């Protein structure tokens, strides 16, 4: 791997706690097997079977005893019954059961390492992710996004980012700038080769400008064409068209201020145009078979909590909750999960340092300083209550959870190590 990603080529780190397997005799002599779900002591060969009607007549109430209805008798077998063998117990319904061998199973060591011990007793309640939440990452975590690709030096190639995201243990990846990870068939092959699903794609639109929206909505088709060409694992959530406001020079020059200065926001006429523009884009996405999501962002007209509330009030679009941008916009991500949970259909999980954006506001610096001053950090190192957000997600969220740590490309940075650490942080919490 290219050194700008912070690791040498062909180096693949295992998750902490993962053990290599070697050929040899297994030490586990207790093997689970499945027996048919019938009573083990049905009518013997040669016995007179009771009429079915008599059996059914005994099923009189709803009392349940040992998973059989009270007063019920076993239904007769429809095939030949052999003599009972030693491993079938009398008068017990068969179930998944272990058969003991002639050796005891040796004690199994507990996994050790920072991926499992990072919580040190401080993690929230145990959580088993049963596949309803898929964890992805994004090119922006490696320094590749709309403000850097083709503009700044030291931006890693898309192939390098795909390698790193897959080797770190993520299940999917966000698209990044169109063409960055490949186009059409090439993109589909790249994703399949790395075992990654496509989580979504970010796309800015001038929602409040009725003159520009028709042409911009047609440009949205290019993103949806990429989704079509990429295909997707039938078991994974479909990619989300992640739509955002294009912002303005005014808002980009005053990041983080709208929470306390509402004069920076839309007037009533602009809100009306904005809502109409959003519904135009929503209709286009739905007509193509994709359910979109709205991404609020620092330096745009949808940044502060009150502006997000207005979007949810005026439109039908779902919300992509970006925890880092909400922190910088003056919001509380945990409270947002409670208040907006029914509208959240996509998640961008990022940690952030409030002190950085507060200094940017005091300095009257533009939004680009958020990335130059590294406002976004590893999970658990900023002001985000990560465990609080994850706890709220346990109460019904399903879909993609996209980890992001927006950084500028830096020859001395270690984005690959950061994203492996972020993946281990979530793995330690059951994700």
Name the quaternary structure.
single chain
Kindly report how far apart the N and C termini lie: 26 Å
CATH topology of the largest domain: TIM Barrel
Query: Which outline best applies?
Result: globular
Strand content: 5-15%
Order of helices and strands: EHEEEHEHEHEHEHHEHEHHEEHHEHEH
Q: What's the name of the CATH homologous superfamily of the largest domain?
A: Divalent-metal-dependent TIM barrel enzymes
Radius of gyration computed on alpha carbons? 28 Å
Structural class: alpha/beta
What does this structure look like?
By secondary structure, the chain is of the alpha/beta class. The protein has 2 domains: 3-12 and 119-427, TIM Barrel; 28-105, no CATH class. Helices cover 31% and strands 13% of the residues. The protein has 14 helices and 14 strands. It has helices at 52-57, 114-117, 158-167, 184-194, 213-230, 249-253, 268-287, 305-314, 323-328, 333-340, 354-362, 369-372, 386-393, 415-427; strands spanning 31-33, 64-65, 68-69, 97-99, 133-137, 172-174, 197-205, 240-245, 293-295, 318-322, 344-349, 351-352, 376-377, 399-403. The strands form 4 sheets. Strands 5-6-7-8-9-10-11-14 form an 8-stranded parallel beta barrel, surrounded by 4 helices. Helix 8 (305-314) links the parallel strand 9 and strand 10 (318-322). Helix 4 crosses helix 5 (213-230) and helix 10 runs parallel beside helix 13. The chain is globular, with a radius of gyration of 28 Å. Residues 8-12 and 18-130 have low confidence and may be disordered.
